[in-house]
Design goal:
Length: about 100
């Protein structure tokens, strides 16, 4: 799992790439927390490069959205979208680009 952060005038864009699973959870949690603290403004998270997402990855996304009032998830990969929709979390995660139905 790699996490790229691009600073923008009004915040930053995060692009996690690879599996977002229990194996990466601790390291990714720390990186996401740092991004929230250092981003001054909105945080956009591009999920298009997620190859696998398990319940730990979903918990990280939920925590990210709950901690950051200006967090926006968008462009989910098929793997991310399927898991998010299967668990009924598209609306909770304020996910752009995913059907809110099951």
């Amino acid at each position: 799992m790699t996490l790229t952060c691009t600073h923008l005038d009004d915040g930053c864009e995060l692009v996690p790439e690879g599996a977002m699973t229990i194996m990466e959870a601790a390291e990714l949690r720390d990186q996401l927390a740092l991004a929230l603290v250092t981003a001054h403004g909105r945080v956009r998270v591009d999920l298009s490069r997620i190859t696998e997402l398990d319940s730990c990855g979903l918990q990280l996304l939920l925590a990210l959205v709950r901690e950051g009032t200006q967090v926006q998830l968008h462009s989910p990969s098929a793997a991310a979208r399927d898991r998010i929709v299967r668990f009924g979390l598209a609306a909770t995660l304020r996910l752009e680009g995913a059907s809110h139905g099951a």
